[in-house]
Design a protein that fits this description.
Elements (H helix, E strand, L loop, with lengths): L5 H4 L2 E4 L1 H4 L10 H6 L1 H7 L3 E4 L3 E2 L11 E5 L6 H13 L3 E6 L9 H8 L11 E2 L21 E4 L4 E4 L14 H15 L5 E4 L27 H15 L6 E4 L6 H6 L9 E2 L3 H4 L4 H15 L7 E3 L8 H4 L4 H11 L5 E5 L58 H5 L5 H13 L2 H5 L1 E5 L5 E8 L2 E8 L5 E2 L7 E5 L12 E2 L4 E5 L2
Length: 510
Amino acid sequence: MPGEPWWKSAVVYQIYPRSFADSDGDGVGDLEGIRRHLDHLEWLGVDAVWISPFFRSPMADFGYDVADYCGVDPLFGTLEDFGRLVEEAHERGLRVLVDWVPNHSSDRHPWFVESRSSRDSPKRDWYLWVDGTADQPPNNWKAAFSQTEPAWTWDDATGQWYLHLFLPQQPDLNWRNPDVVGAMHETLRFWLDRGVDGFRMDVIHALVKKEGYPDVDDPWLSTDRFDEPATHERIRAFRRLLDGYPGDRVSVGEVFILSTAKVAEYYGDNDELHLAFNFPPLFAPWDTAKWRTRIDRVVEEFDPRGAWPTWVLSNHDNPRHRTRYGGSEATARAAAVLLLTLRGTPFLYQGEELGLLDADVPPDRRVDPGGRDGSRAPIPWDVSPTHGWGDRAEPWLPFPPEADVRNVEAERADPTSVLHLYRRLLAARHDSDALRLGTWQQLPSPDGVLAYERVLDDDRRVVIVNFTDADRTVSVGGDWTVDVASDGAGEGGRYAGAVAGDQAVVLRPP
């Protein structure tokens, strides 16, 4: 629709750069590897890419511990490589989002090195330092990667504790300090001035901590540690900054709060985040009632605010959805139809379009402090023994299962593959105003089936998702043509009033 921002109708593809494509044969993906595979993304039909962190980093958390917010780690290339990537992505009509990590830096960042040098350092207050004794942390808060380790580290040299919601190597910045706010705004401008189209904002809900650092009932998950009014003030400032640039630059917030009502608050009054990840659907089992509830909650909480939803099945922090749903390819295919036809902006995770499972990573090759290696396995590009990763060095993680057949080359040659299903679904979205921007209305359906209609003006689509393994009769009234079927069956033909077990279909008027 004219006047609507691009991100409302877009499909965003997440790239985890270490595992996407390796251009120099060192076993680690890089920016040049992404650039060389832009043709794949254009062919697939996505509209934007979100690139997980590629900044200078000691890699304690594989890039989410940032040592330089305005530099590219040599492991991934150079600023010039990034510039070429953005230029060529834009030439293909692909937008580029950067993963910005504002809650914490690396302990190797010059800001923290200076802050840690002395209690009298001009940057001491750039981080969160608290008095105490070495034998007793200031409160009961726990770090994210452990339910037992404190979110505090004692610094012998200066005799205080510093806060880190994640690893000790990831000290939290003090967002109550206006100098921190100003410095971090400059990092946003740095990338905006280089043409990026927006940011995925990491752990955005946790920026400002509760004053006094009180103990909480759940020291690991409780949002009582943060979720402060001042956080919303900071986000409104980000919004003003982005809206001051041309081209509908977008903010996508990682709001890891398992309450859709609380997530909705981070949209503000159309003056905070443009988009926010709502994670309860990602954690929902493949069950009709659970998904109906999750969708209903989004409608109830987002619609009154005019907030635009996001939908995610997989990402770099969680097991792939095919793995979570028991390994069934048929279920993963049906889930793809659901993801790409709900009202909102869908996010695809690299390799999802291949139907990948998590890799089986042996203990001696596990490297992630959060145990997330399986979903971060390298993408297999071709049928060769190295799957397009070269033979100079072994990839940093093992390939996912069945890489000899679940690779881009093999699946692109097979019109019945999961890859071609995703391409058909993306084409169907591009061809339908209703699927991109239309209303959503649930339709009557039997147990185990979710049916809904998408409408915009005179464009209509009906989607039916069978969560069961048994055939179901589903009457939707009138004549319909099968536009896309998760298993490919009957596409282009008349809908006969039934869906097969584990099947999902998109129907259009004849």
